[in-house]
Automatic annotation (TrEMBL):
Main location class: cytoplasm
This protein's UniProt keywords: Cytoplasm, DNA damage, DNA repair, Methyltransferase, Transferase
Molecular functions (GO terms): methylated-DNA-[protein]-cysteine S-methyltransferase activity
Catalytic activity: a 4-O-methyl-thymidine in DNA + L-cysteinyl-[protein] = a thymidine in DNA + S-methyl-L-cysteinyl-[protein]; a 6-O-methyl-2'-deoxyguanosine in DNA + L-cysteinyl-[protein] = S-methyl-L-cysteinyl-[protein] + a 2'-deoxyguanosine in DNA
Protein name: Methylated-DNA--protein-cysteine methyltransferase
Domain Methylated-DNA-[protein]-cysteine S-methyltransferase DNA binding: 77-156
Free-text function comment from the UniProt entry: Involved in the cellular defense against the biological effects of O6-methylguanine (O6-MeG) and O4-methylthymine (O4-MeT) in DNA. Repairs the methylated nucleobase in DNA by stoichiometrically transferring the methyl group to a cysteine residue in the enzyme. This is a suicide reaction: the enzyme is irreversibly inactivated.
Subcellular location: Cytoplasm
The enzyme's E.C. designation: 2.1.1.63
CDD domains the UniProt entry points to: ATase
InterPro entries named in the record: MethylDNA_cys_MeTrfase_AS, MethylDNA_cys_MeTrfase_DNA-bd, MethylDNA_cys_MeTrfase_DNAb, MethylG_MeTrfase_N, MGMT, MGMT_N_sf, WH-like_DNA-bd_sf
A GO biological process held by the record: DNA alkylation repair
Length: 164
């Protein structure tokens, strides 16, 4: 298993991209909760990330609404199910933890959904920022609530000045 990483600047601060055997397996923000130790990221090498760079740039420019990248998301079957549900939330929309639990056929599992959401290894691209509390409140974002609010504002088409 070969791991490589690179750091790319974004409107939300530096993002560390990680590839496992040439496939995107991580996107981590600075000071992100559940961020793995940097020693696990592998050698610095931007080579595997060309298409990821292109799509992130288009997303940040407001030109891309849905990512289309090969990804490797390592997790439990339950986490995999949650992360699959995240990828089905349309750009600019939100879902509650309870709605995701219902979609998984486990209506009492909203807390477990929240834990799995927080361990999403590929933030932004697997849009965990689109999950909100049952009252519509912004809760539980591993990248920080400020970033969550800014990502949601970006997807709603808020002017750039409103993002900072």
């Amino acid at each position: 298993m070969t791991r490589q990483h690179t750091v790319v600047e974004s409107p939300y601060g530096p993002l560390t991209l990680v590839a496992t055997d040439g496939v995107l397996s991580g996107l981590y923000m600075v000071q992100q909760r559940h961020r793995p130790d940097e020693e696990t990221f592998g050698e610095p090498d931007p080579a595997p990330f060309g298409e990821t760079f292109r799509q992130l740039e288009a997303y940040f420019a407001g030109e891309l609404k849905q990512f289309d990248l090969p990804m490797r998301l390592d997790g439990t079957p339950f986490q995999q199910g949650v992360w699959d549900q995240l990828r089905q939330i349309p750009y600019g929309e939100t879902r509650t933890y309870g709605e995701l639990a219902d979609a998984l056929g486990k209506p009492a599992a909203s807390r477990a959904v929240g834990l799995a959401n927080g361990k999403n290894p590929i933030g932004i691209i697997v849009p965990c920022h689109r999950v909100i509390g049952s009252t519509g409140s912004l809760i539980g974002y591993g990248g920080g609530l400020d970033r969550k609010q800014r990502l949601l504002a970006h997807e709603r088409g808020a002017p750039e000045a409103a993002l900072f």
